[in-house]
Sequence to fold (389 residues):
Amino acid sequence: MDINRTQRTPGTSYSHHVPGGPRPSSVQVSQQSASNPTLAGLRSRPPSPLTETKLMSMSGYQRISPPVGGPDNVDGQFAYNRLGSLELVEHPFIASRSTRIDFINKVAAAINSFSPDLPVTVLSVGAGHLLTEQLINNQLSSGKKQSIKWRCIDPMYSATTNNARKSRREFGTSKTDFNAFSTSTAYLSKRRAGVSLAEDDRAGHVVVLLADPPSVLPSQRGRIPKNILRQGTLIKGKSLPDIEKCNTVLLCFHGNSQEGNIQSQGIKNSLASGNIAFTTTAIKCHVTSAGDYIFDACPSVQDKAGVLKELVQRHARKNPGKTPMENLVGAMDGIVDTINSSGQQTAMRAVYSDYDRSVQELVEQSARSAGAVVVAKFEDSQTTLTRIK
Fold:
């Protein structure tokens, strides 16, 4: 089942968060600055909080409402706030402008509270057109602006069109350290001067920024009964041409009928466009950055997960020269061919970057950082800051 989603809208997630987040710790000042209280205050003092009035008065600010019913305004309530080439989405229920501004101010305050002896890395997942990130950066103290590292991740960056190239160029001009990646896998595998970029980023404080998770529109949320929802899984992510930038292979099972083929094609179409899909007959096979396999199965096909794991591992042992993703795809292709030739059932596989798995691995990796680690999430117009370290 395909559930319409407008790009870069806040999303549905079932992970637990601690309301309220951490109390900001006092900003430490170096010994040299401490000898001059006035200078220390100027260096550490952040700008005044962002307000709707300040946002709308910024040079070049526009608020645009796309045509009602179109792909960018499915329920007629979306608007886009633009500043130059940067953009953020607005929706009264899932991403109101006032609550997003509150999110921006709270994230900036958390970053400003970090001790200045370590740099700060922001891992923004689903960064899109980067206006939220820019507004957070604007609210930082001068010292934080100079030391912050921006790692912005979005599958749209791999596209040949509508890839936010102008947004990335504009955002990057004023940053001392900015990199954009199409997926978390691409970020975690990146090396700079022979050193893992992710490992280097963990030498300081880390913020995992989830400003625009994939979202199910309020009007669509009642389409799947709760008892059915518990029996299946939401598929949130996007397929990419380069399988080595992906972290998941989805294996779906359907009856040997035209309806099964339609369901399989619907899921493929959803992944191609980045929409959310739902199924009760799938196994998600994840590849971690360490090359390990994790299998997440719907209850109806749980018994197949163990067999599938053994077949994948056997295929990998026979092909030691291939990457973990190549072995996973190779094993899946063989399984799909066997099932489809049986005439009793049909199977489909799709390679994609899974949003939830990406977030989980980034959080797990960030937990090993030398400094503080905060997960900042904006969902259904609600801000959640969770300090995990």
